Amino acid sequence: MGLEAANYDKITVGDQASIARTITETDISLFAKITGDFNPLHIDEDFAKKTTFKGRIAHGMLIASLVSTVLGTKLPGFGSIYVSQTLRFMKPVRIGDTITTTVEVVKKIERDPQKDPLIKLRTTCFNQKNEEVLTGEAVLMVKRR
Question: For 8-23+58-141, which CATH class?
Answer without folding.
Answer: alpha beta
